[in-house]
Amino acid sequence: MNVKINGDDKQLEKEASILELLEIEQVKMPDMVSVELNGDIVDREKFETTIIKENDRVEFLYFMGGGAIGL
Q1: For the chain, which residues make up each domain, given as ranges?
Q2: Is 70 helix (H, G, I), strand (E, B) or coil?
Q3: Rounded to whole angstroms, how far apart are CA atoms 45 and 35?
Q4: 34 alpha-carbon distance from chain centroid
Q5: What is the pTM of this model?
Q6: What pairing do the DSSP bridges indicate for beta strands 57-62 and 2-5?
Q7: Tens of each residue's pLDDT in the chain, 71 residues
Q8: Thinking of the domain 2-62, which architecture would CATH place it in?
Q9: Phi-psi sector, 55: left (phi>0), alpha (psi -120 to 50), beta
Q10: What pLDDT was estimated at residue 29?
Q11: Are 15 and 1 in contact, with CB atoms under 8 Å apart?
């Protein structure tokens, strides 16, 4: 099955949930990742039930905190 993950073409053996995809892709700190599926942000509560299908586009979004630089 062809999917695009973070802009890269990937092959999956079968359909997978977002939760499974996080494991397959060995995403570090999955609790800190937001997931965009075909342009829409998926609620974390739906990671287990949202299935990735042929030709889907998935983006893993990592949010990082920053600080102010003193002048």
Answers
A1: 2-62
A2: coil
A3: 11
A4: 7
A5: 0.83
A6: parallel
A7: 999 999 999 999 999 999 999 999 999 888 889 999 999 999 999 999 999 999 999 999 987 666 556 55
A8: Roll (3.10)
A9: left
A10: 86
A11: yes
Structure tokens at 36: 């965009």
Distance CA 57, CA 22 (A): 14
Beta carbons of 31 and 60 less than 8 angstroms apart: no
- Dump the DSSP string for 10-21: EE-SS-EEHHHH
Phi-psi region of 19 (alpha: psi -120 to 50; beta: other; left: phi over 0): alpha
Paired residues of 16 in beta bridges: 52
Tokens, residue 15: 């359909």
Residue type, 13: E
What does the buried/exposed string (b/e) look like for 30-55 if buried means 16 or more CB atoms within 10 Å of the residue's CB? beebebebeeeebeeeebeebebeee
